[in-house]
Amino acid sequence: MSIDRDTELRRLARVLHREPAQLGHLAALDGAGLMKLRTLIQNSLLEEFASLFEKIAASGKLAPDALSALLCRKVFGASITANMSYYVPPDRAARMCKHFDDEFMAEIAREQIPERAKEQLEKLPVDLMRGVTRQMLASRDYHIMGGFTDYLPEDKAMVLMEEIADPADSLRISSFAQRKDRIARLTAKMDDGQIRSLIAAAFERPEFIHEVGLVTSEMGEKDQQRMARLTDEVSKKHRATAKAVAEKSGTVEKLRAFFAA
Length: 261
What we know:
This protein has about 260 residues and is mostly helical. Helices cover about 70% and strands about 0% of the residues.
């Protein structure tokens, strides 16, 4: 998997509560270097107190799921619950989540490290994720959603995409997802009307044009040709604009089928 530097810089900036422009001192790091730094920072607290979180998680093994969930809500709070979650069997974690409301689950998600939550995402019923998705959209937590998109099973991602009414929000989420190949597969499954709306939203902001270009560059020839046709239907001028952006970012070669169509 190629690591997009701009995407990783945005994610690191969120972890550090900074704007990407404030991280100019990290210019020497490529995408992989930025990712390594981000994961080191995110994992530092967890690794320092790993034995404690593991003991707390183990202490609740014999308690009913409802009681353990109550303790999480009333005693531990979202931050400790998130750190304990990595040490709870995924099946049990999914059962406990049934006793949480959408708001508390969203708070937990904000504290979790997506790379460590992959098994939980696989086990968690998608219906429980719908409410969390709505909470995240309302609070504009696009960076959290993008991070989880890298590890969320694609069939569940397709269902959750139904909750995203604004195409621009899809692009904002995508801008924080490193797995552009997964975004490309999800986009290819959209109907023509949805893709036209996505393209129209993309060409309202330069950074969105770059994002949709990155996603399209991960598509096969036929899907790129489809994207070209739909782009032309939105505006005959858009592909020329997209080419200028692609030349600047160095993605023209990967978009050969898109520009040749």
